[in-house]
Design goal:
Aspartate Aminotransferase, domain 2, binds pyridoxal-5'-phosphate, Aspartate Aminotransferase, domain 1, alpha/beta, 12 strands, 14 helices
């Protein structure tokens, strides 16, 4: 099956009871047994639920993986990956990552004796200098949030395989429509399905996909033992979202491109960060590992003018000032005071998150309205 067919049919079976085309929402905690242990594969909904199972199969299918797992949020999915580790283990993470991931690593797992190195990964050789016998996991996010840097997944996977280290890729920004990390050698793909997979800003959800059976079994064990699962109603909504992922992503990419070019020539704007520009430092890698360049971009105001940045996000009318991304509606954000405020200012600025930086999640509205909105907000 090709991708556009998979998003609709991948991993799905018609309902055996009545032939329902959409998976029923099995809003139940438990399942009747005919004799102790005599059940149809479902005992208790933390462990298994048919609606969640349909979603987990869809996750696996669209990422070209074998095993999918759904969680109550993206961070719950990352939390489950971190629980593969033990005190003394070390993780090498990109230094330009989602603020909540950074907070989970430094404020929770560091206290459990796991050591994190935050490394600039655009140059893959930087990673190798941090590898030692305790290194168990490399954590990659690409494109990075919010600077839109691109990390070469295949090059990192060659390194991780050489040293027998797990490679996990947060694929939230790209989605499997644009990039399939398992195909590029990653061991774990992680999603905040809250974003593009759900796609309608109405569900918080996380996902993991892996190919290795032993790794999948460990993660299923953690999912059940720690219990950060999602409910059947939310599973249904994300399944529905995934069915239009390809058409939404196509429009996100088209609109994102038009806005990137509009901003690039605007006099009040200093830099535009979008991997589709030929002068983007990692454009060649983006072009080789991604199908297109997505709907996320960020920019800075000339003179790093903080006041002008705040005014701009306040003045936008079609773009809503809000956290999150990846929904059908356009959103704008001010990373330094919103999504990335949990990262200390000095650390933030080292990675380019200056006070005039604005991030856009370009939606699928009419692009003329989006450009007119940016035009009026900047003037
Ligand atoms: C939102 C996000 C997360 C966290 O996901 P939640 O669903 O909010 O818990 C992780 N990584 C990236 C890149 C994100 O954008």
């Amino acid at each position: 099956m090709k991708f556009n067919t998979k998003v609709i049919h991948g991993g799905q079976e018609h309902d055996l009871a009545y032939g329902a085309v959409m998976p029923p929402i099995y809003q139940t905690t438990t399942y009747a047994q005919t004799t102790p242990g005599g059940h149809k594969g479902y005992e208790y909904s933390r462990t298994h639920n048919p609606t969640r199972h349909a979603l987990e199969s869809a996750f696996a299918s669209i990422e070209n993986g074998k095993y999918g797992l759904a969680f109550g949020s993206g961070l719950a999915a990352i939390d489950a990956v971190m629980k593969l580790l033990k005190p003394g283990d070390e993780v090498i993470s990109t230094n330009n990552l989602y603020g909540g991931s950074y907070r989970l690593f430094t404020k929770i797992f560091q206290d459990f004796g796991i050591k994190f190195h935050f490394v600039e990964m655009e140059n893959v050789s930087h990673i190798e200098t941090y590898i030692n016998d305790n290194t168990k996991l490399i954590w990659v996010e690409t494109p990075t949030n919010p600077m839109m840097n691109i990390i070469d997944i295949q090059a990192v996977s060659i390194l991780s395989k050489k040293h027998h280290i797990l490679l996990a890729v947060d694929n939230t920004f790209a989605t499997p429509y644009l990039q399939q990390p398992l195909e590029l050698g990653a061991d774990i793909v992680m999603h905040s399905a809250t974003k593009y997979l759900g796609g309608h800003s109405d569900v918080v959800m996380g996902g993991l996909v892996v190919n290795d059976k032993a790794l999948a079994d460990k993660l299923y064990f953690i999912q059940n033992a720690s219990g950060a699962i999602c409910g059947p109603q939310d599973s249904f909504l994300v399944l529905r979202g995934i069915k239009t992922l390809h058409v939404r992503m196509q429009r996100h990419c088209e609109n994102g491109k038009a806005i990137a070019y509009f901003l690039k020539t605007h006099p009040k704007i200093d830099k535009v960060f979008w991997p589709g520009f030929e002068d983007h430092p990692n454009h060649a890698i983006a072009k080789s590992q991604m199908k297109d360049f997505g709907g996320m971009l960020s920019f800075t105001i000339t003179g790093n003018d903080y006041k002008q940045a705040i005014k701009t996000v306040e003045n936008l009318k079609v773009f809503t000032l809000a956290e999150s991304l990846g929904g059908v509606e356009s959103l704008c954000g001010h990373p330094a005071s919103m999504t990335h405020s949990s990262i200390p200012k000095s650390e933030r600025e080292k990675i380019g998150i200056v006070d005039s930086l604005i991030r856009l999640s370009v939606g699928i509205e009419d692009v003329d309205d989006l450009i007119a909105d940016l035009q009026q907000a900047l003037s």
